[in-house]
Amino acid sequence: MFDAGIVGGGGIVGCAIARELAGHGLSVAAIEKHPTACQETSALNSRVIHSGFHEIPGTLKAELAREGSRLIIRYAEERGVKLLRTGMLIAVPHGSIRAGLWREAGALWKMWAQGRQQKIPFRVVLTAGGVQRIAPIQAMSGIFIPSVCVIDLETLMQLLLNDAKTAGAQFFFGSEVIGIDVQASHHVIHTIRGAIEARTLINSAGLAAKEISQMAGGPKYDIEFVRGDYYEMKGGIERWGIRTLVYPAMPPRSRSKGIHFGPRTDGRLYIGPSATPLSEPAPKPVFLEAARRFLPQISDDDLEWSYAGVRSTRVAENGKSDFTIRLERQTPPFINLIGIDSPGLSASMGIARYVAEMILRRSVPPMAQ
Ligand SMILES: Cc1cc2nc3c(=O)[nH]c(=O)nc-3n(C[C@H](O)[C@H](O)[C@H](O)COP(=O)(O)OP(=O)(O)OC[C@H]3O[C@@H](n4cnc5c(N)ncnc54)[C@H](O)[C@@H]3O)c2cc1C
Fold this sequence. Notes:
This protein has 369 residues and is of the alpha+beta class. The protein folds into two domains: 2-47 and 153-221 and 319-360, 3-Layer(bba) Sandwich (FAD/NAD(P)-binding domain); 88-146 and 224-313, D-Amino Acid Oxidase, subunit A, domain 2 (D-Amino Acid Oxidase, Chain A, domain 2, 2-Layer Sandwich). Helices cover 30% and strands 28% of the residues. The protein contains nine helices and 20 strands. It has helices at 12-23, 60-79, 101-118, 128-134, 153-166, 209-215, 236-240, 284-292, 344-360, and strands spanning 2-7, 28-31, 48-49, 83-84, 88-93, 123-125, 139-145, 149-151, 170-172, 177-182, 187-191, 194-203, 224-233, 245-248, 260-263, 269-272, 276-277, 303-313, 324-329, 334-338. α1 runs parallel beside α5 (153-166) and α2 (60-79) packs across α9. The protein is elongated, with a radius of gyration of 21 Å. The structure holds flavin-adenine dinucleotide (FAD). The site of flavin-adenine dinucleotide has 40 residues, from α1, β18 and α9.
């Protein structure tokens, strides 16, 4: 009998929760359907450690990205995980006068106001020359957020996993969860390899979280799946000289942060992600167009398709998209994590603390011995 059973222990969020709970002395079963960690959304993202600047103040996304990014950056520094101190430039491209400057400038202005509310340090860049001093791109103005960085995801994941194991968490890889029985005081989690018993059930199953919630007798959540493709910019940082993340200015309540480009820790440059329905990858011209707004010299040959990831987003009736992290049942305790889309990587260590807090101090009664 484990104190906690985590479905989705191979994702960055499930793994961070396993580490946090095991660190508090709880016995933890981290259950993962793939044979190794980081095989789904956690590997197929932009690897950006967001400060929460894009998020609506007061949401869980804003709060946990701010807290989580602080924790990840400190962890990376202490443990030697490679971090690129890129900063993030949210820019208004040249040519916007014809193509709706006021919409873009208005979006930038709203982000400025939102950023001030969030108390995240940033500076406004008012001229094309100022932009050029940050990145060799064509843009009229922008906002620069120095705290944003890009992380070596594989090393981060490996270290979190090692920490969790060292603290006593047991990982059950290759163990797809196929059913969950709810008993009076605990859960019986049926996997293709056998049953695991746990008092608290934590559903951190990413794209399958909706199904796991229903398996455990929880609500049927409405989830949208959004596909995001990436193209590599051939020649990488060395050729293009771009060492910062370049994002378009999007209206604050838009569902995505827009197609951006920026460096990775291995020296490559990527542009993406698009935001389309699952079965409809965005065509290459969409990426070319997004890049040309800032880099007019780029051509079709410079971009090569690389990979795609899928976001599972929960949009509330008021149109806001936020993480849902909820204690669905007190006895036996059941916690759902639904719609952990961007910035879930940045927030992962903050989410882990939040879940541990729910279990250890607030919502969940002490574990029966
Ligand atoms: C295109 C894109 C770009 C993004 N960019 C960023 C970014 O730059 N910065 C950022 O902070 N965030 C970003 N995100 C969001 C971030 O990637 C996610 O929030 C994060 O990876 C979610 O982690 P997770 O552990 O919840 O999900 P996952 O990585 O999906 O992990 C869930 C795990 O559950 C397992 N599982 C599912 N069903 C079962 C089952 N039945 N039995 C056992 N195991 C099961 C899966 O195999 C998987 O390993 C991006 C996302 C996308 C799609």
